[in-house]
Amino acid sequence: MINSDEFTKRLQKVIDFYGESASSFSEKIGVQRSSISHILSGRNKPSLDFVMKILSTYPEVELYWLLNGKGSFPAETKTEHTPDLFSKDTAPAPPPKQKPQEIQRPQEPLADQIPNPVFKSDPSKQIERIVIFYTDGSFKNFENSI
Q1: Is pTM beyond 0.90 here?
Q2: What is the pLDDT of residue 21?
Q3: Which of 42, 66, 86, 114 is most buried by a 10 A CB count?
Q4: 8-37 burial code (b ≥16 CB/10 A, e <16)
């Protein structure tokens, strides 16, 4: 269970770290000013939606640190490159080595062979966001920038 007093201190630390007022912070994460005020005063507890909006807007904030005080803030940046789902890889993988006679071309495009009721029912729908949850309780949020 979340300790509301400790969560409030960590939320205030996030607001101060980014040099925001409670009003500008609430505007950036997309909540009403009163929501921030009520959480900071201890009147209300944060909802899951509230926490997710903070994590989505400020990726340096770690979930476990915000909820339980475990971990670090701001999140330590990793030096290795981790590609995301929407970026193009700058170094494409080399094609597998096969003899030319073994390569078979499909008669029709693969998209026509694989049934996909989501895209067949409404081609105007696009993926907005994908969230991957890891076994250690962390997660990664990927948003489509199109």
Answers
A1: no
A2: 92
A3: 66
A4: bebbeebbeeeebebeebbeebebeeebbe
Residue 25 is given by DSSP the state: H
Q: Is 79 helix (H, G, I), strand (E, B) or coil?
A: coil
Question: What span, in angstroms and rounded, lies between the C-alpha atoms of 54 and 140?
Answer: 14
Strands 139-143 and 129-133: antiparallel
pLDDT mean across residues, the chain: 78
What is the distance, to the nearest Å, from the Cα of residue 96 to the centroid of all Cα atoms in its chain?
33
Q: In the chain, how long is the greatest CA-to-CA distance?
A: 72
Token code pair at residue 69:
């005080």
Q: State pLDDT tens for residues 90-111.
A: 566 666 665 556 666 666 655 5
The residue type of 60 is E
Task: Check if the beta carbon of residue 39 is closer than 8 Å to that of residue 53.
Answer: no
